[in-house]
Amino acid sequence: MADANGMAVINQHIKQGAYSRVYLLTGSENYLIRQYKDKLLQALIDPTDTMNLAVFKGDDIRGEDIRGAAETLPFFGERRVVSVVDSGFFKSGCEVIEEFLPQIPETTVLIFSEMTIDKRSKLYKRVAKEGTVAVFDTPDERTLLTWLRNLFSEDGISVEEAAYYKLLSAAGMDMTALYQEAEKLRCYAIDTGRITAADVDALCVSQAENKIFDMTEALSKRDRKRALSLYEDLLTLREPMMRVLYLITRQYNVLMKVRFAADTGSASSGVASFAKIPPFFVKKYTAIANNYTEKELIACVDRCQQADTNIKTGREKDQLAVELLIMDLLNL
Q1: Position 205 pLDDT exceeds 70
Q2: Residue 65, Cβ neighbours under 10 Å: how many?
Q3: CATH topology for 4-135?
Q4: Under a CB-based contact definition with an 8 Å cutoff, are residues 42 and 72 in contact?
Q5: With left for phi above 0 and alpha for psi between -120 and 50, is residue 121 left, alpha or beta?
Q6: Which residues 6+ apart lie within 8 Å of 97 measured at CB?
Q7: 8 A C-beta contact, residue 301 and residue 252
Q8: Using CB atoms within 10 A of its CB, is residue 11 exposed (0-12), middle (13-18) or buried (19+)?
């Protein structure tokens, strides 16, 4: 089964108690991949049964080792479960696993959790044929808001409506970041039982990210004085230069996506989905993107990437590279 809705298919398999012999859990939302991998593991095997659970993680995994673990019969148990995380096999390939999948013992369930895949690969096609490909993508804003409300309601915490939108603005559409920030707020509100928008501003909004956003806006207007003032603020905050470069690069990548989506006639919701930003940010990003031509935005992203290369190859010190980048962006 290929490209099934991850949450729906895993929930259905658990409810029915009927499992595939091999799963590929993938998609853009790593938080959901982790959650549903754990949910599947708990349904398949007793968490304390370490004798019948094998876990492999990282780029140095060998296909032979996975096959060996998967071929082992369960020890005083119904199943043997093999969990493989971020192997890279679905891009680089693994002939051993490709050949083995049709031969997986009925007593074994093999679970791959992979953020990066190539649907053209032989291994992906083989898993789709022999088992289940469960896809977990980032939910839309409405679903994320419902999820956040449920998180806070578990502790009986009252949350100001504007605070939810502030939280989405601060953490973006990344569920891991949202969960971490929500946990911070829940701990803060354990005594008061209430969270306001001001609380989110105080606890969750990154000063550096706000200043980078404002600096990007100043750069787009070629406002040298304001851009350099905001850069000095970042120096005062002692923000690492590589993080500053990363945030600038991310902003210009988002701007390029927003400009492309808008130019191809996408509606606001389509722009938000394509650029992976909250819908209420579309107007702000579009206004900044409109200060550039498409060619200029491509040049901005290229210049950001060149600064990163210059630092990593030792051609320039990180602070010098960032400062030269800012001057280049002002003059584009």
Answers
A1: no
A2: 14
A3: Rossmann fold (3.40.50)
A4: no
A5: beta
A6: 63, 66, 67, 89, 123
A7: yes
A8: middle
CA-to-CA distance for 140 and 147, rounded, in angstroms? Answer: 11
Q: Quick one: CATH architecture of 207-331?
A: Up-down Bundle (1.20)
Q: Taking the C-alpha atoms of 169, 170, 173 and 176 in order, what is their torsion angle to the nearest 10 degrees?
A: -160
Query: Across the chain, what does the average pLDDT equal?
Result: 89
CA distance 187 to 77: 40
Q: What type of residue sits at position 113?
A: S
Tokens of 308: 């990163």
**pLDDT (tens digit per residue) in 251-302:** 999 999 998 888 887 777 778 888 877 777 788 889 999 999 989 999 999 9
Decide: helix, strand or coil at residue 108: strand
Task: Give the position of tokens 């060998």.
Answer: 62
Report the topology of domain 141-203.
Answer: Helicase, Ruva Protein; domain 3 (1.10.8)
Cα separation of 253 and 255, whole Å? 5
Element (H, E) at 124: helix 122-130
Q: Please list the residues that pair with 23 across neighbouring strands.
A: 111, 132
For the chain, the domains span: 4-135, 141-203, 207-331
Can you tell me the distance from the alpha carbon of 111 to that of 82, in angstroms, rounded to the nearest whole number?
6
With beta carbons less than 8 A apart as the criterion, state whether 332 and 304 touch: no
pLDDT digits (tens, 9 = 90+) for 161-177: 999 988 887 777 778 88
List all residues 6 or more positions away from 215 whose beta carbon is below 8 Å from its beta carbon.
226, 227, 230, 231, 234, 248, 326
